[in-house]
Amino acid sequence: MDTPGHDIQSLTGMVAGGAQIGVFTTGRGTPTGSPIAPIIKIASNSTVFNRMQRNIDVNAGSIIDGDKSFDDVAQEIVSKVLEVAQGKLTASEIAGHREFALRCMGSLGCIY
Asked: What is the count of structural domains for the chain?
C-alpha cells in the first residue's frame, strides 16, 4: 500500500485502506498506536526492544542476536496477529497510545 512515510500518518493510511490490524516495524521504538485499529509493534533490534518493552510486542532483533530463527520470529508475528484478532490487547493499547494523523496535501487547500 502506498501510504505516507510519517509513522502515524502511515498507520492511519493503512487502516483507512482496510487493514483491521496494523503491524508496524520500528528501529528506533516509535511509541505509537491507533484509536481505530490495534497496532502490533515489532522491534528490529534487541536494544530498542529491551529499552521499550512495554511499548513493543515482538523482538525481531532476536534473529540478529542468534537467539531465534527467521521462521521462529515469523511464527511469533503470525501468532500475535491471531491473538489480537481474538481480542488480546497490544502493547500500544495497554500503554494508551491512540495517535491519529492525516496527510495534508498542500495543493489541496490544507489549512496550516
From this structure: 1
Closest CA to 11 of 24, 28, 30, 26: 24
CA gap 19, 69 in Å, rounded: 27
| Full pLDDT tens readout for the chain, 112 residues | 566 677 888 888 888 889 999 999 998 888 889 999 999 999 999 999 999 999 999 999 999 999 999 999 999 999 999 999 999 999 999 999 988 887 766 665 555 5
Q: How many CB atoms lie within 10 A of CB 36?
A: 16
The range of the structural domain enclosing residue 56 comes to 21-98
- Is residue 63, in this structure, part of any structural domain at all? yes
Q: Confirm whether 26 is domain-assigned.
A: yes
